[in-house]
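hey so i finally got around to running the thing on that chain from the lab meeting. sorry it took forever, my laptop kept dying and i had to restart like 3 times. anyway pasting the input first so we r on the same page abt which one it is
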Amino acid sequence: MDSPATLQSITPGQQTCKVVGRLLRLWDAINVKSKFAGPLISIDRVILDEHGNMAQLSMPKRFQKQFRPLLTEGNVYMVTDVAAVDIKNKTYVYHYHNYMLQFKNSTKVHHLETRGANIPKFSFNFCPFDKLPEMDIMTRPLQDMIGVISHVGPFEYASPTSQHKLRIIKIRNLDEQTQEIRLWGKHGEAFDEETLLKKSQEGIVVGIFAGVTAGNFLGKLTISSNSATTIYIDLDTSEVNNYRKSYQWATPTLQQQLPQVVYLSPLQAAGKLYTLKEISTLPASSFQERASFSTIAKVQSIVTTANWYYKGCNRCDKGYNNSSDTPTCLCTNSSPKPLYKLPITLADESGKLDAIAFSTVVEDLVERDATHTSQNMKIDPSEHVNVLNNAIGKTKLFHIVMKGDSASRFPINYIIKKSFTVDNAQLLPSIKAFTRHEIISSPSPNINSQRSNDNTPQEFHSNTPPFQQSDKDKLSNSAAKRCLEFPEHEPTNKESGESVHHTAGELDLQTVKRPKQEAPSTRHATTKDCSPFYLN
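ok and heres what got predicted. didnt touch it at all, straight out
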């Protein structure tokens, strides 16, 4: 029988590795951007071998029923027939080596009762504070941090308009440098503030924050928790004991902090609401300095004469060159992924407005991400799929900005920056009345104003390929849209109180060819709403 390999000796590409080690930490790797069911990517863990080397061991979610019951944190295992996968294109993984171990269907797991008793139950690879700026924030490698806790903030909303809560912790190293750590969601809520404050009265409190990531927010380096994060307070290890002995600065004074952020609902934060006609008549100068204007409107139709997704970098989301199919960014190991760029028509009692919706806005409307809808780009962006119809009939609070790319050949000047679900009880009487009336699907002029965008802010300049549109395709916008009618005797999605549940395999991916000279077809349906998912 072959002897187990040391983690240090394994190289990427090996397919039949055998390793022995203790499972130190287990976590579910979650797609935090997913707003829908099934965000689990894999079940991951850190394994420590008999020679003191660590590696990340990953179990794809398709194997979770087969292997999850066999693994318990803290136990020692022999794992055979696992593959060493290159991590150069991986995000949110530990960079102990240039590989991570991955389960296969043929993998075997053996619990060892006596072997490995000398393997420590805890091990970390701490990142010095001054090395954090050197981290590749695009790949978000997992890091372990240690420090004396010098500040504990309240668990509160990230901002008055954010739906996500966090707790800000500050730690101090032996050189008295301070680093802020943002504990999002469950990590911030479960943080035992009361116990920590009591411990701080007896002396310094040392915290270990394992599996955090470095990022950049508004030009500032930030450290954040994620689904891989585990927090240890005054852990009984040699590292913590040495930290206590070496710390020479004054003991931080910790006090309970009360929440300061007053949450505002999206409708409260929106302030003045504008009609679509009012937005269309605003001069371009009104949209400077990131200015957006809020409106409550219904998605009436989809413009089918334009591509509904584009290729973007899997790391930074910048668009690919349309002609050469190469990235426009400088990211290393860039690969393409589909990103939504869907032109839609909004309608309210004042008229209609064409606007372009991107990424998460479209995901919320159609209830699917672009990778799923495009079958990982197997469907051409000019071929419209029926699942896009999910957007039609949704009434939302939209924040609208003006597009900054005056050179674009596509004649839509407006971009939907954000969208929010609005309860039917919050709608104004006039909007409620409008949503109960039939949306006319016959051709009618839109209220888009065709003006120069020279004064729009730089951050809204499009870095994606322009929509490709031939002369034959330049039909009347309203004559080339897919529309749904809402008869007065049928309830809308908000009134019916019904919901739609999509499961794997139920997605209708029938494609619809881009119309040329045909008149638009009209389909009748009642749309359903889908509540957004929670960011980790």
